[in-house]
Amino acid sequence: MERLQKIIAMSGYTSRRKAEELISLGKVKVDGVIIRELGTKVSIDSKIEIDGKILNIEKKEYYLINKPREYICSLSDEKNRKIITDLISTTARIFPVGRLDYDTTGLIILTNDGELANILMHPSSDVEKTYLAKIEGNLSSEDIIKLKKGIVIDNVKCKPKRVKVRKRDKVKQSDLVEIVITEGRNHIVKRLFESINHSVEKLTRIKYGFLELDNLKSGEYRILTNSEIRKLYSYKKAKKKSTYQ
After folding, report:
1. Does residue 101 have an active-site annotation?
2. pLDDT, tens only, 13-47
3. What proportion of the chain, given as a percentage, has pLDDT over 70?
4. Domain boundary among 18, 38, 54
């Protein structure tokens, strides 16, 4: 059950504010009954009409997938590369929330809920993204200090929340580094390491906010639970709270 004006907005017919005006004017019918009271909750399966036009409302779907290498996070590709939505069996018009590079693996959310996607991708929501990066060379203490202090990339400072060497191989001269960031600029993790002269050989996102890959194998996915969806929406509440502090 959702508020009527929200369902109308979700359908793409008009904005939520305009939907409220239409309801107040008695122009909206639900299952043949005119609804005038704002905030009325109805089923997403209801027959909703506005001035005699029946709305086409797509049910919201939410997936967590372990993205394999050599898939792009897009809805189409002029180079005919494999796209992430091909891995999920659905007729809904889902899209990835943010993106992972072609050669980057790991956790990504796909949905057809534009409102939630906007919340999660908005910089002020501060959603933590945790990556494991296999890098060329061993990080020095000076390198770690530079990362933790933040590095300016394209005139904007990127300051990781956490940086930790998980595994060090002095023989092969490589490190496995856990790094947590909140922003989503393209190639940002690779560029952070490149700025201190370490190339990234392999990159995997293992967490997105509170969500983890758990036992999902490469290419496997699962449907998010209602509890997880509500918790993801709470990033919007956290953003509002911080605005007034």
Report:
1. yes
2. 888 899 999 999 999 999 999 999 998 999 878 89
3. 96
4. 54
Rounded CA separation 227/107 (Å): 18
What residues form DSSP beta bridges with 152? 157
pTM beyond 0.70: the answer is yes
**Which tokens go with 162?**
């956490």
Which residues form the domain of 118?
Answer: 62-123+214-244
Give the whole-angstrom CA distance, residue 123 versus residue 142: 28
Of 116, 71, 124, nearest in space to 94 by CA: 116
Q: Are 114 and 61 in contact (CB under 8 A)?
A: no
Which of the following is catalytic: 101, 113, 143, 169?
101
Please give the mean pLDDT across all residues of the chain: 92
- Neighbouring C-beta atoms of residue 66, cutoff 10 Å: 22
Q: What is the mean pLDDT of residues 85-90?
A: 94
